[in-house]
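Before a colleague's protein record goes any further, I have to sign it off. What it holds is a sequence and that sequence's fold in C-alpha cell form. My question to you is simply how this chain folds and whether the C-alpha cells agree. Thanks in advance; the entry in question is below:
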Amino acid sequence: MTIVDVLNKNAEKYRDEVALTEINPEFDGSSRITWRDYSLMQPEPGKPFKREITWGEFNTMSNRFANLLLSRGCKRGDKVAILLMNSIEWLPIYFGVLKAGAIAVPLNYRYTSEEIKYCLEKSDSSIMVFGPEFIGRIEEIIDRTQTVKHLFYVGEECPTFADSYDRMVLYCATDTPDIPLCEDDDAAIYFSSGTTGFPKAILHPHRSLMQSAVVEQNHHSQTHEDVFLCIPPLYHTGAKMHWFGSFLVGGRAVLLKGVKPLWIIKAVSDEKCTIVWLLVPWAQDILDSIDRGEIRLDNYELSQWRLMHIGAQPVPPSLIKRWLSVFPHHKYDTNYGLSESIGPGCVHLGVENIHKVGAIGKAGYGWRTKIVDENGRDVKRGEVGELCVSGPGVMKCYYKDPAASDEVLKDGWLYTGDMATEDEDGFIYLVDRKKDVIITGGENLYPVQIENHIRRHEAVKDVAVIGLPDPRLGEIAAAIIELKEGYTASEGDIMDFCAELPRYKRPRKIIFATVPRNPTGKIEKPKLRQIYCGESVVARQNEI
C-alpha cells in the first residue's frame, strides 16, 4: 500500500466530508480564486478568507493534475518541482505528481532565484508548478535553466512563459491514472535546510511516505474525528508528515496562513482543532500574548484541543512546564527527525513520558537508534556521541551525490550529525549539532546546554550560542540574545544568571540582537557566524 492508495480509499469512504480547509485570517489580495471557486465572491482585502474541499474533490483535483502531467509527456520517474505558498491546491498537486508515477520535488518558498535554479538542476526537474509570488524569480532564471521543459502557473493572469494550471485541469480526465505504484518506487526529493551552503537533494521512496503516516498514527492515536492544524510550510517534511497520521484515517487538515498567536487560538476554536504542531517561537509567542492579556482563553472553545507537540529543534524544558501550567489538560509530545529520515518520528518522547521533558525520547515505532563515537563504536550510557537511526523511513540517498551519501549512510544506519547522550532509562537527550560544537581551550562546549539555561531568564525570548575566534582559547562562546517585548536586561544581568553554570560553560560575550530562524524554526547559526565571525569562520565550521 502506498500513500496514494490512502487518498483513493478516503475519497471512496468519506467522499462528501471536508478534507482540507484553508484559512487566510487577513486576506491581502494575493490569494487565488481557482477553478472550483467560481461561485465565490472575490474576498475583500483585510478580511478573513476561507476555502474548503471534500475528500472527493481532493482526489478529483489530484487525478486531473496527474492526467495533465501525462498529457504533457510526463513519464514514470520524471521530477516535478512544486514552488507554492501553503494553499488548498498544494496537497492535491503533490498527490497528482505521485499518481502520475512521477517524483515530487517541493521547493522552499524563501529560495532566491539562483537557489531555485540550483535545485531544479540538481533534481533534474523537467516540469515545474509555481504561484504568483514567484513570477519574478522564475523570470530571472527560466532562460538559463536547462532541465525544465514545462511550466504550470497556479493563479490568475498567467505569465506568457507558462501554461495556466487553473484552466488546463478543467479539461483533464477525473479518473485515477492506471499507473501501478509500489513501496520501492521513488516518490519525492526533499531538500535539506541548506545550513552549510546549497541544500542536498534527499531521495525517498514511497515506503518512506507510508512509514511517516504509520509512525505518526501509532504515536498519537489519531482517529477520523481528529482535526489537525497545519501551520508550517508544506514543502518541508515536518507538519505534512505529522498530518499523514490523520490522513491515514481520513482526518481533516486546517491550513492556517499566518502565525500570529491570536490567529492560531482562533483557528483552534473555530475549526474545533484537536491536534496542533508548533515550533518553539510560536509556542512562546502564544504564552507571551496570554500573559500580556492580548488573548483571553475563556473567549474561545478549546476543550477539544487534546495534543500539542513540538519538533524541528531542541525544546527548552522551561517552555513546556510553562505551557502545561496554562494548558494543564493537554497531552504533550516532542518529535525528532530529519528530512533524511522523512521528517518527524524516528525518535519521540511519548505522551506518557511527560516526566522526561527535555529528552527527545526513544526510538519511534519501527525505528532503531544508537549513539556512537568518532570510530562508529557504541558509547557508554551517559557519554556524548553521534546519534544514528535505522528504519523504513531512511532516505534512499542524496540524489546524484554518492560521496555525501556514503558519509551518512553506513551499514543500514543514518548518521544524523546530532550529538546526543542517553540516560539510565534509555531516553535520548540532544546535546548539539556536530558542526555547532565549540572547542574552547580543548573543552567541548555544546551550545544547546547553554541556550537552555539562558532561556530560563524571564526577559529572554530567544537565544543562540555560537563560537567566536579567540587567539588563546581557539574559540569562546558568545550568546546572541533576543529579549521579550517590554523587558530589559544588561550584559551583567545575563552573566550573573549564568553563574550557576560551570565556569568553562559560561558565555564570554553577550550580544543583544534578533535571533534569525528559518521557516521550519531552526536557528540560522551560519548566518550568525557570518555576521559576527566573518566568512572564514563559516567556511571552517562547514568543514568540521
Remarks:
- DSSP finds 16 helices and 27 strands in the chain.
- The first strand starts at residue 18 and ends at 24.
